[in-house]
Amino acid sequence: MPDHTAKAFDSDLQDLARMVAEMGGLAEKQIADSVDALAKRDTALAQRVTQLDASIDALQSEIEEKAVLTIARRQPMAVDLREIVGVLRLAADIERIGDLAKNIGKRVIALNSEFPPPKLIRGVEHMADLVLGQLKMVLDSYARRDVSKAMAVWRGDEEIDAVCTSVFRELLTYMMEDPRNITFCIHLMFCAKNIERMGDHATNIAETVHYMIEGRQIADKRPKGDTTTLTALRTAADG
Amino acid sequence: MDASIPTKPADAHIDGPVRAHVVNLSFYYGEKQALFDVSFPIHDRKATALIGPSGCGKSTLLRALNRMHDLYPGNRYEGEVILYPEQINIVSPEVDPMLVRLKIGMVFQKPNPFPKPIYDNVAAGLWVRGIRKKSIVDERVEQALKQAALWDEVKDRLRTSAYGLSGGQQQRLCIARALAPDPEMLLLDEPTSALDPIATARIEELMAELAPSVTIVIVTHNMQQAARISSYTAFMHIGCMVEFDKTTTIFTTPKESRTQDYITGRFG
Questions:
Q1: What does pTM read for this prediction?
Q2: What CATH architecture applies to the domain A3-238?
């Protein structure tokens, strides 16, 4: 696409894209660190994770301010308008991902010494790996304006949901074995749910990227694999 | 009017009754060709905006629609502009340009009231059509001034000179003058480019009110204005019609890259 006649408009848009990329990078680090803190029982790292969230929030406000100013100054049309509206949505989703990672950090601190056995954490770690892969890919699809990549992320969320369901099952049996496991199992389940939610935000981002490029919403229905609610019902019925 | 009007080119873009059809219209200023094979529908009682960079032919096209070019010798039209429901080709040499101008009103970039009282300005179009009966003229003048949202501001000074009005009021007066004879179509050539933002907003508001009852074709350089007030938009470039579609489509997801480049400020 050729440059704008008003060069400053191009640099405004580039600045916004750069800030979103920076925000995405911070969120990726936050997710990796939060799960690392959980696996290594590292409360100091968990503390840093909760602190990092402030810089993500700050970036979001900066992006919002700049986007509003750009709309006011340039009255963007068509692809430019979608670009700016998309950036606003992207920033909101990444900010939420940061919040969820922060939440995991807080739980690691709350667990204090009472840590679950590593084999239980493995499922959560696996989920985190999947989500990190999704987030990386969706941020890449944004940077490269690659619809097919965005669509791959959009379809890929099903796997995270499925792992979340199996983690839930696993934790449920563990809790039934010994009621003393309940506290950390519940914490762990919330961590898993947090990561599952991050995956949802990654698919939101994929939808936004699709809209930015194509100018219309995705028409298909998204495949869903999170059946934790049904699992609960079934287990209750079985018991 | 008849909804089952025979359709010609650009059928894909017709989604309602059509007031006029521009069919393969070319126009020459003497030797120089200014319009190339332009085709598009003008929907009935909707606003159609013509946009494009300077010199793209949008004003030339608008002026062709009421035969303004006939004022200078050597100009010539090819193709057709079929006006419905009469089904006459208004650019045909056999059709009297005066007849066309009686049906199609025009408002220009700069307000051009006659150096006469406000009342006479609005009544002028009626008088040339032979409407002389005072009660009828009074009624039509009042109605046109109301339609142009000017009545409340001028009803106590109808006999004073139109030159005493502000620029925005003068422009609304010109619109009232064009509306008084109840035209079949209203052509507006950048009607707000000489006005301040408040007067511009008034004219836009007025167009929104007129659109359900009058067919409007407007040339504008202000893209946001085209996006706000029109139902259909035609993008022109160097004498050609590049893209015609619903305004919402043109300004959100245009199909042609030239259109996209122009409306997003990337042109040239």
A1: 0.82
A2: Up-down Bundle (1.20)
